[in-house]
Design goal:
Helix content is 43%, strand content 21%. Helix 4 runs antiparallel to helix 5. It has twelve helices and 15 strands. Belongs to the prokaryotic/mitochondrial release factor family.
Length: 465
């Protein structure tokens, strides 16, 4: 009677060597298509437990059969799963309707009909045999043609994507059951489309003459000693990560290392559409508050670094003439880890525009002549930006390098201790997810600044605050 001792709560049937126990077996909820009916299990599910009785000839094994009242559990699970799927479907249908309205509004506000008319005009110009008689005008025409084509294609893609999602919704309404795979596909379409629409709306705020260009970011350590140099290095990494996530061609073209840690200064070039427009609001002083890793007592330290942004312009497109007497040019050794020219030849160039005091430094090229050309190009780009902004401010107020990286000048605060917070002083936008920000997640701050910048323009132009 070993089986009775092992399973005292069950009843023994000696004729079939079978133990029957009336315990319902729970069903696993289906997460797949409801239209696929699962194969019903048999009324008794057999589980064999090996037994070693004193009389092996009498019992070789005990078979336990669990009776499963399928009708009781399957109805509840099926109805619950269907309810979840219906809720997802209703949410998706509402999102699709909202996105369709948004796409229609964007297509209308973008002047799609006007763009198509412009496309016809530009194509006719491009087909003219005399187009290349004026090379500069030909390049301008082809660039405008490319921009119009890209914009029309983008607006067309928006419509086709939302129509695909709407088709899935309508197809689901006609079906007798809900296909989870289709719901997931439509949800992904809407999610990705809304991200693309956000980016498109952001680019519509960028109407400046150089907003479509690439960008050059210069980072300089400010007040704070070694901590400030380490902070400048952290900012360098942040902007490089941002550029890589935006799929810009990102290069650190110049870096001056600190004595103990970090960097004294660095220059980054980002090649890609609208890089300057997005990053123009990053110009200013960035302040960090944290426990200093360079302080033996672990005291809280406040440090500053300055960020300057200018457009990356082709040399032939910079139509600014600077008299030679307005330039103060000096040459130094580039410094670095070694090489045939490094620390031997004065290839680094520092160029100062005497009337404004604006300065640039170029060290990335191996020859002095090449560095001089690049430095002059960057200086001209700075002057172009200043000329554009001079309508609203005096030159000393909008000079990127006129703002001291010191107390009271910051545009954004990064607090690592005693709490975690990143806050933009101008827009008031803040987040506690400081890790993501330092990893290049700058879109919320960029978008908030652009909206703040362009929404405040009418007030400033009318003289009201």
């Amino acid at each position: 009677m070993e089986c009775l001792q092992l399973l005292p709560t069950t009843s023994l049937d000696l004729r079939h060597n079978t133990l029957t126990h009336n315990t319902p077996r729970p069903l696993k909820p289906s997460i797949l298509n409801n239209s696929r009916k699962p194969t019903p299990p048999s009324l008794h599910s057999n589980f064999v437990f090996p037994v070693t009785p004193s009389n092996p000839s009498r019992f070789s094994a005990c078979v336990v059969k669990f009776a499963t009242p399928e009708s009781q559990s399957s109805v509840g699970v099926s109805s619950e799963t269907t309810e979840w799927q219906m809720q997802d479907f209703y949410t998706l249908r509402k999102d699709v309707e909202t996105t369709m309205e948004r796409v229609a509004e964007i297509r209308h506000s973008s002047g799609l009909e006007k763009l198509e008319e412009d496309l016809t005009v530009l194509e006719n110009r491009a087909a003219d045999s005399s187009l290349w008689d004026d090379r500069a005008k030909a390049q301008e025409t082809l660039l405008a043609l490319t921009d119009v084509k890209d914009k029309i294609k983008l607006l067309t893609d928006f419509k086709s994507q939302v129509e695909d999602a709407d088709m899935i919704v309508k197809l689901t309404e006609e079906m007798e059951s809900i296909d989870t795979g289709l719901l997931e596909e439509a949800t992904k379409i809407i999610r990705d489309l809304n991200k693309a629409l956000d980016l498109f709306e952001l680019t519509q705020l960028l109407s400046g003459p150089y907003d479509k260009e690439g960008a050059v970011i210069s980072i300089t350590a400010g007040a704070g000693g070694t901590d400030a140099q380490d902070w400048a290095d952290m900012l360098l990494r942040m902007y490089v990560r941002w550029g890589e996530k935006q799929r810009y061609k990102t290069r650190v073209v110049e870096k001056s290392m600190g004595e103990e840690a970090g960097i004294k200064s660095a220059t980054i070039e980002l090649e890609g559409s609208y890089a300057y427009g997005y990053l123009s609001g990053e110009k200013g002083t960035h302040r960090i508050v944290r426990q200093s890793p360079f302080n033996s007592k672990g005291l809280r330290q406040t440090s500053f670094s300055g960020v300057e942004v200018m457009p990356l312009l082709p040399e032939e497109s910079v139509g600014v003439e600077i008299p030679e007497e307005d330039l103060d040019i000096s040459f130094t050794r580039a410094g670095g880890k070694g090489g045939q020219n490094v620390n031997k030849v004065e290839s680094a160039v520092r160029m100062v525009h005497i009337p404004t005091g604006i300065s640039v430094r170029c060290t990335e090229e191996r020859s002095q002549a090449q560095n001089k050309i690049k430095a002059l190009s960057r200086l001209k780009a700075k002057l172009l930006v200043i000329a554009e902004e001079q309508r609203a401010s005096e030159i000393k107020q909008i000079r990127g390098d006129a703002v001291k990286a010191d107390w009271g000048q910051q545009i954004r605060n990064y607090v690592f201790h005693p709490y975690k917070l990143v806050k933009d002083v101008r827009t008031g936008l803040e987040t506690s997810d400081i890790t993501s920000v330092m990893d290049g997640e700058l879109e919320p701050f960029i978008k908030a600044y652009l909206k703040y910048k362009y929404s405040s323009r009418p007030a400033s132009s009318t003289g009201t605050s």
